[in-house]
Amino acid sequence: MNVEYFIAKRLFTAKEENKSYTKPILRIAILAIALSVAVMLLSVMVVTGFKNDISDKIIGFGSHITISSFSDNQSYETEPIQISDSLYTSILENPEVKHISTFATKAGIIKTNDEILGVVLKGVSSDYDWTFFNNNLVAGKCFNVNDSVKTNQVLISENSSKTLQLGVGDDLIMYFVQNPPRVRKFKISGIYNTALTDFDKLFVMGDIKHIQSLNSWENKQVGGVEIVLNNFNNLELVTEAVYEKIPYNLNAQSIKDKTPQIFDWLDLQDINVRVILILMLIVGGINMITALLILILERTKMIGILKALGANNWSVRRVFLYSAVHLILKGLFWGNCIALGFAFLQKKFSIISLDSNIYYMNTVPINFDFTAILLLNVGTIIVCYLILIIPSIIITKITPVKAIRFA
Fold first, then answer.
1. From CA 140, how far away is CA 142, in angstroms rounded?
2. pLDDT in tens, 218-231
3. Are the CB atoms for 133 and 142 separated by under 8 Å?
4. How buried is 66 (Cβ within 10 angstroms: 0-12 exposed, 13-18 middle, 19+ buried)?
């Protein structure tokens, strides 16, 4: 039997403990640990949720990797490229590649009787995956693209819909500035809202055959190829592998290379999490040190008796370290209950809303990463335990004679 653990357990189960004047102080220490753990868990869940949500939206508009013409063209007018069937096959052989589709973009102007709006028509082909837009539809439906028949249906954002005062089923007139200028009449099939305002204002989804016709391209010529991966963490490795396979006149760019400012901004959020974790660990550690010292002072007589019976300093220290860990575990339990309970309510009912113009989302996001939650709990126990070893040294200064005489 572990004698130190047995004694520590009796400290919390003995009847006289209920009459102890330290009980309220210990409860406060448990509450402080619980709140610190809850804040740490919520910080991790919110920030990772925020990063995942923004990343998914950026990738939804542009995929993980894009193959396009190797040029300095910075406009929305994609230059024509042609991908061979063998290259398609070799890219799909990579187990990290989930989906491939072709696209093309062309800048245009939408004009109504009262409004003018500059947009980019993104033409997609029959192999396009509509999952992202289906998940963000607010009205209507996504249209089908056929390889043989050109469709006039388009998808516009809710922001553009309100600006142009157009709805599902309405006609949309788009002008293309080229020589000679061209006009196309589309019909709105659906309206989406991703809350990523800058992108929502910009893109209109349509059939790639319109852009091929406007630019006098051949049927197999496209503006680029979009590659969707199974795992975002392998982005750099797969991008490099794809780049090695494509011809010299083509370029493979990851979504991080195309929008570096957004992903750099997302990476900065990790600094906020680290600061919060450090501050909360300091708060929790200080509270546990206080609780441990109070336990030691209250049990000075017991320490003297244990030493008189032959217990060494480390054995006595372990008794109080076990007691402190008991308090930490209680704090962790209630902290997890608070954090996970609030996170579940937020995930289910979106209690706290956000301004999408600032945060690119309508509600506070939550990501239940149970590996991170487990590591955070284990890390808190280890850090607090190591911190408490130092103040427990005070036990070595207590002598049996003085402890028993003045108890």
1. 7
2. 989 999 999 999 99
3. yes
4. buried
Which stretches of the chain score pLDDT less than 50? 16-19
pTM over 0.90: no
- Would you mind telling me the total number of residues written for the chain in this entry? 407
Give residue 226's identity as a one-letter amino acid code: E
The per-residue pLDDT for range 363-389, each reduced to its tens digit, is 999 999 999 999 999 999 998 888 888
Please tell me whether residue 344 adopts helix, strand or coil conformation: helix
